[in-house]
Amino acid sequence: MNTWRCSTVVCALLTGMAISSACAETITAEGVVYAAPCTLEAGLTQTIDLGRDKIQALNVAGSESRPQPFVIRFDKCPASSSKVNIKFDGVADPGDATVFKNAGTAIGLGVRIYPKDQQTPVSPGATQSARITNAQAELAFLATIYSSAGNAQAGSIDVTVPIVLSYE
Length: 168
Hints:
about 30% strand; 6-stranded antiparallel beta sheet; 3-stranded antiparallel beta sheet; mainly beta; 1 helix; Immunoglobulin-like
């Protein structure tokens, strides 16, 4: 909305006086310029099939299922970006901060995610990075069903891990 704040002109017009005055107006332009993000090769949603396991195999504290590999691939990355960062923004299990909390019906179980070639799990809130080469980047992981305290009870595993992407 354009509001005139020149009282001299208004008074002059009302009284019939011929006074000239100039008003200073300000135009402000704002915006954001950003590099287009990379494209996720598998799309925005990826499902990892953790398979079926007998509860007896997961009944001891620290036990875990067979690892299931998965890869997050990026392509069409902008030339201005050299690195992609992935923050794993899921909810931690109350019994173990390195385990993503299960929302399914299995009790005492969650999901652990490991970088493919490392022993240390990716905790909820942690960030993993990959260099962008030839407009592409890739991060390989393993996911397991994990029993933090033992005495697990059979049921479904349902863990959602939102990821937050940033680029350098």
